[in-house]
């Protein structure tokens, strides 16, 4: 492929001089690249892990992962080649792309949903009830599968995510070679094949000695990159080979110049398809998360999303594109409160206000998937047209867009000097929304106490609350389970009423 020459240095020297972020940040040369290590650094989590979302204070003590405590080795390598010879060893560089995964056939839908709902970063039960995680996941996945299957059936019978992620991996590998950094690129999915565990096995078989971990989510969320990194941390902890493998993590990259430019290009291109481009409202639609992830657990997702939108609008502004724009959150599951405004409400509202031209921009994910192809292209489009919007457009997901892939390659190249080294200075660590440090610390900062979060689906809202715990939660749970059984056998009940389960 054509791998545009936006070099690492060009990219890192970018500065968004007129941008005024909501969270004070100092833009440093390495701002476009934040990389963290799993095991060697300790950048301090917020004092209680809850409130301090923007300015975690670094602390020196090192916490080591794994079965052995290894001495810290500050090995700084150059990035001119991935087969780097440090002493007498040849280094083999790998890049692990982390993604969500999606069912490839309709038969995969229920087991895929089971894996998703069995993830404690998606549904977090109080410690007392963690033994119910799998039975609940089984219940919800079976109950939700028919509705989900309809969605996947309408987009061709399965998710395109694996195919697209594989193409991204292939293009990234080619692009890295063109930048003189040959590296093998692996795909590790969280909830479907190829699972992260499978990718890790391959990494071991291939004898990779330096690994760059790159979640394919531009913005960090506990529920996405956080979940994948937590799994990876567990795998690393338990494996002798991996404990000794040098690695670095790029936790989020929404602020990189190449990514922002590529998004702005796509938007500019779609705007050009309207009769009156300047009259179009640019409608950023991000995947939502339950509000409690942000407000209680300190998920930086919302802050990063808002900053990302601001950066894209700054870039468009430089091109004299000054359209009105808005950000809303889609794909809510269950009735607990998620980030607002909700996409459907925002669309209706804009229609009522007389907006006639709307351009939807999926912003939280870089591949086409069920929520772009079905939810946005079908459901939201219909809603928009029936709300008075006359002209509708949608920006495609980035996929293998060359500038974007090139920017990811630059991100990898820039992170290589940090692999196995003290990756970042305290100063750098302080100015990130997602702090730098080991994954352990990264997760701890936002999620230190792994507090109970309101689940995105309702049943434990009712039965798994702290008060339920206090006055004999087990009894409450038994009641909930009885209700669930009733609901499944009769097809009626509160889950159906609230629309969690499809009515038969
Ligand atoms: C940044 C992206 C995403 C966030 C944040 C996220 C949070 C989140 N998702 C669910 C529940 C479901 N997600 C499902 C599919 C799905 N989710 C994302 C991305 C994010 N999720 C993608 C890309 C996909 C689609 C994959 C594909 O197959 O194409 C599903 C399954 C589909 C469905 O039944 O609707 C569920 C369920 C929760 C609860 C959550 C935050 C807590
Ligand atoms: Fe999701």
From TrEMBL:
Q: Does the keyword Lyase apply?
A: yes
Q: Name one Pfam family in it.
A: Ferrochelatase
Q: What is this enzyme's catalytic activity, as reactions?
A: heme b + 2 H(+) = protoporphyrin IX + Fe(2+)
Q: Which PROSITE patterns match?
A: FERROCHELATASE
Q: What is its main location?
A: plastid
Q: Name one GO cellular component term.
A: chloroplast thylakoid membrane
In the UniProt record, the signal sequence range is none
Alphabetically ordered keywords of this record: Chloroplast, Heme biosynthesis, Iron, Lyase, Plastid, Porphyrin biosynthesis
Q: Name one GO molecular function term.
A: ferrochelatase activity
Give the enzyme class: lyase
Q: Which InterPro entries match?
A: Ferrochelatase (IPR001015), Ferrochelatase_AS (IPR019772), Ferrochelatase_C (IPR033644), Ferrochelatase_N (IPR033659)
Q: What subcellular compartments does it reside in?
A: Plastid, Chloroplast membrane; Plastid, Chloroplast thylakoid membrane
Question: EC number(s) for this protein?
Answer: 4.98.1.1
Entry keyword Chaperone: no
What is its membrane topology? Peripheral membrane protein
**Pathway membership of this protein?**
Porphyrin-containing compound metabolism; protoheme biosynthesis; protoheme from protoporphyrin-IX: step 1/1
Which domain of life does this protein belong to? Answer: Eukaryota
Q: Name one GO biological process term.
A: heme biosynthetic process
Q: What does this protein do?
A: Catalyzes the ferrous insertion into protoporphyrin IX.
Family of this protein: Belongs to the ferrochelatase family.
Q: What is this protein called?
A: Ferrochelatase
Provenance organism: Raphanus sativus
Gene name of the record: LOC108805366
């Amino acid at each position: 492929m054509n791998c545009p020459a936006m070099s690492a240095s060009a990219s890192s020297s970018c500065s968004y001089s007129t941008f005024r972020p909501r969270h004070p940040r100092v833009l440093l040369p390495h701002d476009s690249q934040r990389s963290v290590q799993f095991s060697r650094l300790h950048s301090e989590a917020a004092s209680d892990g809850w409130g301090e979302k923007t300015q975690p204070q670094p602390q020196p003590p090192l916490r080591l992962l794994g079965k052995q405590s290894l001495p810290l080795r500050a090995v700084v390598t150059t990035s001119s080649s991935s087969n780097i010879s440090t002493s007498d060893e040849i280094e083999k560089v790998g890049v692990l792309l982390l993604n969500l995964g999606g069912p490839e056939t309709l038969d995969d839908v229920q087991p895929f949903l089971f894996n998703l709902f069995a993830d404690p970063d998606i549904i977090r039960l109080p410690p007392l009830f963690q033994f119910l995680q799998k039975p609940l996941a089984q219940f919800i996945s079976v109950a939700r599968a028919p509705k989900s299957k309809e969605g996947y059936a309408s987009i061709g019978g399965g998710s395109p995510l694996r195919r697209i992620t594989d193409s991204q991996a292939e293009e990234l590998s080619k692009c890295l070679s063109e930048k003189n950094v040959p590296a093998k690129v692996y795909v590790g999915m969280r909830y479907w094949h190829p699972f992260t565990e499978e990718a890790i096995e391959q990494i071991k078989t291939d004898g990779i000695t330096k690994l760059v971990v790159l979640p394919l989510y531009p913005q960090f969320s506990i529920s996405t990159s956080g979940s994948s990194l937590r799994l990876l941390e567990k795998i690393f902890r338990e494996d002798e080979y991996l404990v000794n493998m040098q690695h670095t993590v790029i936790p989020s990259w929404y602020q990189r110049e190449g990514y922002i430019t590529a998004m702005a290009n796509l938007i500019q291109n779609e705007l050009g398809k309207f009769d009156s481009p300047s009259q179009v409202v640019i409608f950023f639609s991000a995947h939502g998360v339950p509000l409690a992830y942000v407000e209680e657990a300190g998920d930086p997702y919302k802050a990063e999303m808002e900053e990302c939108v601001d950066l894209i609008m700054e870039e468009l502004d430089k091109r004299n594109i000054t359209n009105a724009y808005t950000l809303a959150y889609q794909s809510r599951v269950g009735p607990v409160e998620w980030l607002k405004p909700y996409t459907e409400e925002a669309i209706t509202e804009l229609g009522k206000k007389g907006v006639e031209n709307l351009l939807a921009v999926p912003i939280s994910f870089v591949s086409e998937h069920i929520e772009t192809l079905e939810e946005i292209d079908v459901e939201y489009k219909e809603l928009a047209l029936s709300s008075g919007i006359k002209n509708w457009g949608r920006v495609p997901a980035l996929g293998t867009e060359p500038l974007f892939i090139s920017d990811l390659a630059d991100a990898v190249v820039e992170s290589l000097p940090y692999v196995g080294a003290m990756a970042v200075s305290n100063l750098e660590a302080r100015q990130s929304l997602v702090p730098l440090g080991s994954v352990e610390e990264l997760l701890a900062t936002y999620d230190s106490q792994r507090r109970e979060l309101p689940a995105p689906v309702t049943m434990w809202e009712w039965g798994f609350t702290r008060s339920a715990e206090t006055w004999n939660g087990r009894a409450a749970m038994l009641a909930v389970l009885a209700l669930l059984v009733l609901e499944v056998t009769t097809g009626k009940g509160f889950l159906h009423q609230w629309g969690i389960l499809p009515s038969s």
